[in-house]
Amino acid sequence: MRTINERLDDILPKITDPSFRENKGLGNEVGYYIFDYDPQYEMVVRNHIEYLKEKIKKEHPDLHIREFDLYEIVLEILEQKGYLQKNFEMEEKKGSDFVLNATKKALRLTLDNDLVIQYMSDRTQQSDIVFVTGVGKVFPIIRSHTVLNNIHRAVDQIPIIMFFPGEYDRQSLQLFNELKDDNYYRAFRLVD
């Protein structure tokens, strides 16, 4: 069994390989990748993502990592719409389940005008490699398979890597190694 550090060390050579950005070897499919990891290594993975972004910025100026932390996106959208403080007040009065459903509706999740997907689309360029983070922090507002199933509408020609605190067996996602998400077959494991 490979260690988390060995697996993390394999990311840089993989994403800097020119064929990675061209999606070669994937049957010309859009490059959706998942880097799954044991949730206990969350801080190790976060620190490594920062390291990767800095290293690529210095040594590979032709590449650009665009990180989208789903949790931070949700907070920003709710703040911009004036809903964030209202959500806190509503949760005190009506409970967490009510606020969860109201938040999902406000974000228009899975609709054609999904605000999270639109947020990513508006900030992505063709030269980017997209890192999707914050999957565990944003649960249960956003489920990882929901993002993966809908992001193609906005970002369809560039590689996307979801950093997933749990297990991906190439068929299904299991958040925190406990919560089974829906099946998802279109993503590839970034590193075995």
UniProtKB/TrEMBL annotation:
A Pfam family recorded for this sequence: BrxB
Protein name stated in the entry: DUF1788 domain-containing protein
Source organism of the structure: Salimicrobium halophilum
